[in-house]
Amino acid sequence: MDDFFSVNRFVIALLTFQGLIENLLYLVQRIGFVPNGSRVYYEHRSQPPLLIPMVQSYLEHTGDLAFVRDNFDLIEREFLYWMNNAVIEVSFKRTSIPVSSHKLLQSLID
Q1: pLDDT at 105
Q2: What is the DSSP string of 60-89?
Q3: CA–CA distance, 33 with 47 (Å, rounded to integer)
Q4: N or C: which end of the chain has fewer CB within 10 A?
Q5: pTM score, two decimals?
Q6: What is the pLDDT of residues 53-75, one digit of tens each?
Q7: Is 46 exposed, middle or buried (0-12, 13-18, 19+ CB in 10 A)?
Q8: How many CA atoms lie less than 13 Å away from 56 in the CB half-sphere?
Q9: In Å, how far are 54, 58, 59, 100 from 19, measured between CA atoms?
Q10: What value does the mean pLDDT take over residues 21-49?
Q11: CA 37, CA 46: separation in Å to the nearest integer?
Q12: Residue 91: in which H helix or E strand, if any?
């Protein structure tokens, strides 16, 4: 979660943030999602789903669409991880709404 806020605070250092995002994408490639840290014991705990907003922020500040295109498969993989593992249906006024539930994911894994 801290990584997301760092990207927005230090936009001037764009290459650093591109590297940070690349590191997170590497973890998605290796593990299938962004874990809570780069240690083995974090491989069963995820960060909140902030990778895509981080990429969006990077794109808005750099216009680097090529970076997004080059990494689209991994960005989509992170998205699908959340859609397949941490979305619950909430009923409201006879309508079913999909809602991401980070807490639900933690309880399923722990």
Answers
A1: 46
A2: HHH--HHHHHHTHHHHHHHHHHHHHHSEEE
A3: 8
A4: C
A5: 0.70
A6: 999 999 998 899 999 999 999 99
A7: buried
A8: 8
A9: 12, 11, 14, 27
A10: 83
A11: 8
A12: strand 87-92
Long-range pairs for 28-31 at CB < 8 Å and ≥24 separation? 28/74, 28/75, 28/77, 28/78, 28/81, 29/74, 29/77
Helix (H, G, I), strand (E, B) or coil at 41: helix
- Report the percentage of the chain scoring pLDDT > 90: 35
In this prediction, residue 104 carries a pLDDT of 44
> For residue 52, how many C-alpha atoms fall within 13 Å in the half-sphere facing its CB?
15
- Return the amino acid letter for 80: L
C-alpha span between 18 and 48 (Å, rounded)? 19
Helices (H) and strands (E) in the chain, counts: 6, 2
Does residue 21 register a pLDDT over 90? yes
Collapse the DSSP code of 90 into the 3-class scheme (helix H, G, I; strand E, B; otherwise coil) and give the result: strand
Provide the CA 40 distance to its chain's centre, in angstroms: 18
Both structure tokens of 100: 């991401």
